[in-house]
Amino acid sequence: MNECFGIKKPDKPFSRIPIDLTLEQTINAEASRRLSGIAHFTNSIAARQRWTKSHSIRAAIISHVLDVCGLKQLQDISADLQPNRIKIYGKQIAHFIEIFEKNINPFDEKLDKDSLYNIATAKPVPENVANFLLNIEKNREDLLKQFITECAEDQDRFDKPIKKIKCLILLVLQRRKT
After folding, report:
1. Please, what is the Cα angle at 63 between 49 and 75, to 5 degrees?
2. How far apart are CA 161 and CA 152, in angstroms?
3. Are strands 17-18 and 6-7 parallel, antiparallel or unpaired?
């Protein structure tokens, strides 16, 4: 039987609510003051900030309560060991190996070490695409810092759309199709 920790009213047998949902609804209700629920949660920057600041604390409390009650679930990999899943994963691995053999082995010693290769086409990608891929984490951090700075300077910035960043990989693929 699957156990679950929840909160319920003592006189209502079917009114149990998961503890994480209860905490979130409580915070949402407090954040909107007069009105409760999620609808008014996103309209207040102060409410969003309170929710963000307390999210890790709520997660830690829920984790601790589940652990103390003996309800903390460990990672269950038994589903991956079912015969049908093993068959599916075997086919996926065989297909992946077939792609390597048909196109390119990225571990081949003969490949140019200064180029980044597309496994599916067996060709090196253009330099601008390689730079885009190799610097994606740094670019993400820079864009995140820029967004945080903009939000700190202008409280309305959070609700405005984020500028789209061109994905060079998709641009190269689109050019090849036409």
Report:
1. 120
2. 16
3. antiparallel
